[in-house]
Amino acid sequence: MPHAQRVLVVDDEPSNRILVERALAAAGYLMTSAGDADEAMAAIRRSGPFDGYILDVMMPRVRGTELAVLIRRTQPDARILFFSGYTGELSARATAFQPNDTILAKPVSVGDLRQAVSRLLAP
Prior knowledge:
By secondary structure, this protein is α/β, with parallel strands linked by helices. It has helices at 14-26, 37-47, 64-74, 87-92, 110-121, and strands spanning 6-10, 30-34, 52-56, 80-84, 102-105.
């Protein structure tokens, strides 16, 4: 039996973190969450690497795209889903994304979120 995939969600909005955690935990993923880049890096040091990362693009201090660079210093092949309510921000930062990254605009349905994560983590 394959192991449950481990996902770290990083979002400064608690309601977004809770939604993502609940939706993906119900689909069988093992979830960890963080409210900012510092918490995320601590979680990675403590429990990482994770199979996948869901990063809010627009966070105070360290943006999701910047956090992705930090994650990829030790996990170059990290699978990252960028999550943002600012589609213009996603377009402006397109150069920060790797070819296999996934980008989802908020708001998103639970079904679309699960589908995107499933595709992201597919072998």
